[in-house]
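Appendix B, Record 12. Input sequence as logged:
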Amino acid sequence: MADVTEQQQQEIVKLRELHLTPKQIARKIGLKVSDVNTAIQLRAEETVLIRKATGELDPVYQCLVTPNLIRLLPDNSEFQQLKNSVGNVENVIDEDGDGFINGLGYVTVAREGKYNELTICTFLLDYWCLGVKDAMTPRKVNRAKYKDSINKLFDAFPEPPQEVPISIAQGMVYSALEYADKLGFQPHRDFAESRSHLGDWNEKIRIICGRQGKPCYVDGPYDDPMKILATLRSSVGDGNFDYLVQVKPDGYF
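Logged structural output:
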């Protein structure tokens, strides 16, 4: 890389903040595109090291959630515009009109990392019962491949993901975690490693968990239904929760 002066470095940073491409920046200040790219990369790496040293989280790039989680936000003016953006629940809900995909929702938080790199964490929420049912530990993704990664993650859901602020994404995850904890369920084992990626929750934003006012357990392929039902009987008592489990040919769960 040719010598880039401190003044040019500052100019590159300012122009980059205005979302100019390296090619546009190079033209504007009379440098080679390769020199601008190298300067941007070095700057990004320095910034990441400083954040790690101070314990500061990387900036949020994007938070995406399944629309059913947005519909669980409180009915007040703060969230009304966001709730209106996902419309009604026709054709994507169960016959009771209160959820779909068996009470499951996805939350993905992407943060900016090194040059041209994002770090992604994804949380599968069972907001009817089990809380944080799965957690994907932080993984690095090239920005060019980010959209494809997101499409694959949300492919199992009938509606495209919606962008929300980090405060709402935090509220969704921690609401489900809090609800499940009261029922006696612990989050997925990888949540401990993924938790810091979310950042601190101010406890102001919550979603409505449970189904029709009480827990509802729907069994999954890796669950232990007998153990989960026993936990529910212990925490809330028979008759105070619903469940749907598949019965095996031998007549047992």
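The first strand starts at residue 60 and ends at 65.
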